[in-house]
Amino acid sequence: MGTCAIEPEILSKKLMKGLVQGRDSATQLRTLLCKPFGDHGSVISAEELAEKILTSFDETISLLTSSSSDNSDDHGALNGGDLMNDGHGISPEPLDHHSHCDDRSSEEYSGESSKKRSAPALKDRRGCYKRRKSSQSWTTIMPTIEDGQAWRKYGQKEILNSQYPRAYFRCTRKNEQGCRATKQVQQTQDNPKMYQTTYIGQHTCKHILKAPQMIVDNSEPYNFESLVNNYKASTTTIDFDHHHSRNKNGSGIGAPTLMEEEQEQDQVLMIKEEAQISEDLSEKSSFDTEDLWSDFKDIELSDPSMGLLSPNGRRAGTDHDQGTVDSIPFSFVDRISMDIMVDDFVVKSIDFPDFDEAEFPLGSA
DNA sequence: TGAATTTGACCCAG
DNA sequence: CTGGGTCAAATTCA
């Protein structure tokens, strides 16, 4: 709701903070993974680092998401808006999308006729859903489809004049919480390694209170392989063209090969439409991010609201959450992309119109 | 066995 | 009428 709008410079700070935090944590994690048992002087576990990274980026994404959604008629991503997408202060979109029609669900198809869709039942679908027309949407192009959110694929279509199919995802909590967020993912024509993701609507669900089992359960020793497998198992993948490996094959979208990652170093992350981001920040690449982070971490790491957006929740009550995409343990293979992404994002992409380096003292606070 | 994905049909906006 | 967004039964997976 409008009362939660934040000022652009505050938003900019928070965005920068989240990115810097993620990058810093990723760096730490890399060190930790390179020398999992060595003396790296780290007192924080890989799981905790992964959690920090995910929290940072989820926070940042949420900032972009919520702010852009609140400013649909401008380039609102950086123009302020609600801080969190955890449902606080965010009213459902004024879209009559599906509405009550979701309730019919299986009932009409239950019973002896469940094997086939009967014509009468299908007729009842008429008028039951309206395609969202005016939803806030924004597009990103990244070498990964991962965004720290929980998505469930509900469709895939061949698109005219497009070499690659488009996959449709909805929030996994659509049924539980009526979250209307959806996204569409499609490989870009000119570079199949890049995925254009169009986000439609914003998350209205609260997914932050689910206990992150991976963090909570510290009884198990750090296991890199399980981390990677966990990621793969927890990651939505798209069977584009049917020649891409699926996640169980170990080379799916969520887990690019190292060779691919090297090539991806040239990739540029872009956020279009809502987030107008230029390359001006390249001049700011000389940031001493550690100093910057040191300035930030005391400020907001202790902020309870940070934890609220933890994406690392697991579905309670399930002994295996292979489908719970909201938990995306930070894998080794992805840390490189993360580094790349963060580098690209920070170095090339961010341009906060009101950004003032004075706001980010590089020395002491 | 429950949850996620696949896939073909349905439906609507343009 | 067509393209594309969504539904939901069937299938797959862990």
UniProtKB/TrEMBL annotation:
Do the record's keywords include Transcription regulation? yes
Ranges for domain WRKY: 140-203
- Which residue stretches belong to region Disordered? 66-130
| PROSITE patterns named among the record's database cross-references | WRKY (PS50811)
> Where does it localize?
Nucleus
Gene3D superfamilies recorded for this chain?
WRKY domain
Top-level lineage group = Eukaryota
Q: What are the record's GO terms for cellular component?
A: nucleus
Coarsely, its chief localization is nucleus
Transcription regulation found in the keyword field: yes
This protein's UniProt keywords: DNA-binding, Nucleus, Transcription, Transcription regulation
Q: Pfam families per the record? A: WRKY
Q: Name one GO molecular function term.
A: sequence-specific DNA binding
| InterPro entries per record | WRKY_dom (IPR003657), WRKY_dom_sf (IPR036576), WRKY_plant (IPR044810)
Record field: compositional bias (Basic and acidic residues): 94-107
Q: What is this protein called?
A: WRKY transcription factor
Q: Which organism is it from?
A: Boehmeria nivea
Q: Which gene encodes it?
A: WRKY18
